[in-house]
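One record is given unchanged without comment:
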Amino acid sequence: MTGYVYPNEIEVNWGLFIVLYPYITGLVAGAFIVSSLYHVFGKEDLKPVSRLSLVSALAYLMVAPLPLLLHLGQPLRAFNILWTPNPNSAMAGFGYIYSFYMIVVLLEVWFIFREDLVHYADNSTGVTRFGYRMLTLGARDISPPTLAMDHKIVTVLAMIGIPSAAFLHGYVGFIFGAIKANALWSTPLQPVIFLMSAVVSGIALQILIYAAACKFRKRRIDMACLKTLNKFLWAFLIVDVLLEELDLLQKAYEAREAWPAIHTLFEEAIPLTHFTQIWIGAFIPIVLLIIARWDRVSNAAQRLLTIMSSAMVVIGVFAMRFNVVIGGQMISKSNVGLTSFQAHLVADEGIIPTVGILVLPLIILVVLIRILPPWLEGEAAMTGDH
């Protein structure tokens, strides 16, 4: 703790679970948008990851409210926003937005996999057959006209889901940006910055999941798909970095009373996570992603560079969430002091529970993939150069 800090600011109240909240919702939004790029905008190159991205979005969406519920200490209190709705509460908005978005995602998953569910029900026995028949909800007509109608409904749902996904995460940025008393959080750019970083982290995560799935299934990575994801990741990353740096540059140029505290925060209090956000998670991946698209670079090197860049971006976005959530609370309202943050191993939203929540969506994803395999027919098997 340095400088002048008010007594009620000594303790950082929003810990690592609140860091996870915008991080996981961002991964949800980004994964859904990857899926929608195929279903709505017709990006055929992304067909190999279109269904996988949607299932990934569902897996992460199921875990998205968990950090908030655990942070409350009394999870059942979360239902108060439904029993006693208050339209003037920005915090309560998450419940409505999340519920609506979950319905959209569940419907889209069901319509996309309905044909598969009917086939699985017809070609299985016992409990498995019963389970798949239940999942069809009795809709077993898979004639061409019905499937064509399913496709139209999926397109409409994806069109509804894109603004819903954007709103879900832009809303998180809105919450932070609307807190005027916090010099680091209060900026009208905050919702856009959160949204862009969400798309970036979601695309990067899909690259990692797709690469891991191909490795595990011994299938060849579709290079056209990977290059398209590379281009989208690079483009959104450029916009994201520009917005973040413009916001920081404006704060430095205005040099208001809080700027010395913000500058000290990044330079002395959280230099490691700030370096991770700017260099590991942004500038280095921007360069590597460009190199990965050079024709003179071999396919193996292109895959390696793109996957490395994606891993760095995912880590960098987590560092950005940490810097915003934890760093913002470390700046005293006196604007001339910084409090400290100490992450515990287990207690008080510690590191181990945080890692556990981060791993949980991946476990759910594995289960969902076992129930609803998102793979396409005719995928090339892995060869020796892989």
